[in-house]
Amino acid sequence: MGGKKVCIVGSGNWGSAIAKIAGANAARLSSFESRVDMWVLEEEVGGRRLTDIINTEHENVKYLPGHKLPPNVVAEPDLLKACAGADVLLFVVPHQFIGSVCDQLRGHVKKEAVGVSLIKGVDEGPDGLRLISDIIHEKLGIEMTVLMGANIASEVADEKFCETTIGCKNMKYAEMLKELMQTPNFRVSVVPEADTVEICGALKNVVAVGAGFCDGLGYGDNTKAAVIRLGLMEMIAFAKLFCKGPVTPSTFLES
């Protein structure tokens, strides 16, 4: 006890892959509480509750089968219990549910807690496009950071090498969050342009789809290279219009 308490809000394949990393790091580092709560939307799998399966077999057999979770990761079906007293909240739910999740959490999280959004995408509504981290901040009143990268959950769980980027406007959290998330196979860099990092996390998938179309249509590598280059230029142009803070070219070279 005495370290920072970590809670993972979400337990799909990405949430469970992140639980492997955060759980293992929390267990070995004195700066974090060993126990990591993971909120699991309760459901039955083979006649058993998913939380019971995770807590006894240490495996999310539905969303990340074949991968053992650290035994200090505890599945909790009650959202408020899972998040109670948490110092670090890792948000890993589908973006369409983040509003309702935050509405349930309002008034039940520590004001000095820091949130990390691992949710790729943006919210679209009457007021236009909004960053997911902004929605969480407005509803819960906590400082927000983001983690984005070319990270396929199954490959992260397989411990295949990849990179990711944390966007952290308040850099006092940078070292702590990097310590929580980095492993020899999951390389973390931290930059202050959180809005740019987050919008890149959404837009890069559009460019990736375009590159995939080139493969599917047999257009060849030259065309695909052009699509990727033009896509990157459009990402930069969009970020300069959309993001509230500075947008520097070097951020686009992060993962």
UniProtKB/TrEMBL annotation:
The keyword DNA repair does not apply. It catalyses: sn-glycerol 3-phosphate + NAD(+) = dihydroxyacetone phosphate + NADH + H(+). Residues 195-254 form the Glycerol-3-phosphate dehydrogenase NAD-dependent C-terminal domain. GO terms for cellular component: cytosol. GO terms for biological process: carbohydrate metabolic process; glycerol-3-phosphate catabolic process. Keywords: Cytoplasm, NAD, Oxidoreductase. It comes from the Eukaryota. InterPro entries: 6-PGluconate_DH-like_C_sf, 6PGD_dom2, G3P_DH_NAD-dep, G3P_DH_NAD-dep_C, G3P_DH_NAD-dep_euk, G3P_DH_NAD-dep_N, NAD(P)-bd_dom_sf. It is an enzyme of class 1 (oxidoreductase). Residues 5-173 form the Glycerol-3-phosphate dehydrogenase NAD-dependent N-terminal domain. It holds the Pfam family NAD_Gly3P_dh_C. Signal peptide: none annotated. Its main location: cytoplasm. It is found in: Cytoplasm. Its EC number is 1.1.1.8. GO terms for molecular function: glycerol-3-phosphate dehydrogenase (NAD+) activity; NAD binding; protein homodimerization activity. Belongs to the NAD-dependent glycerol-3-phosphate dehydrogenase family. Has glycerol-3-phosphate dehydrogenase activity. This is Glycerol-3-phosphate dehydrogenase [NAD(+)]. It comes from Smithornis capensis.
